[in-house]
Amino acid sequence: MDSIRPPRTHASGVGIDCDGAYALPGLADHHIHILALAAARNSVDCSPEAVKNRSALSRALHAAERDVHGWIRAIGYDQSTVGPLDVTVLDELAPAAPVRIQHRSGALWVLNSAALAQLDIRSAPAHAVERDHNGMPTGRIWRGDAWLQTQLPPAGELPSHVSERSSPVSGSPR
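The line above is the sequence of Amidohydrolase family protein; the predicted structure tokens follow.
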């Protein structure tokens, strides 16, 4: 760089003398989703890195450990590996247990028939439950986390690696 411009002052009148160094604007996002991290420990990893194709997704779901209520929770799904999921595809790939898979965007959950049968779909916000041309749920729940949480069975016992006394969170994540 041949020359350095003189220091500029912000509209507020505040200037920063960097003594010849550069200050680069940027985004520093230092927050963490602690409950999501805890829930991820008890979820099947369905990310493209872990699940490369349809048969790998099916194997992962069939091998998954169920929670105390018999549900299987999976996260990180991306349609680049198997294509779009709906209740029909998930029923073909997953065991008969209730299964819910979260898309990696966080905006979508896909449920199989066994899971849908345990929910009161009529109580869902109209925007959350996608329906086919016959009005039947497709298994896709869009931005319906708050409603879905009210429908799921209680989280139950804490995982064996967390004691009630040492847990910084009251209750365990669903």
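Note on the example: Confidence is low (pLDDT under 50) at residues 158-174. Residues 34-151 form a domain with the Diaminopimelate Epimerase; Chain A, domain 1 fold (CATH 3.10.310.70).
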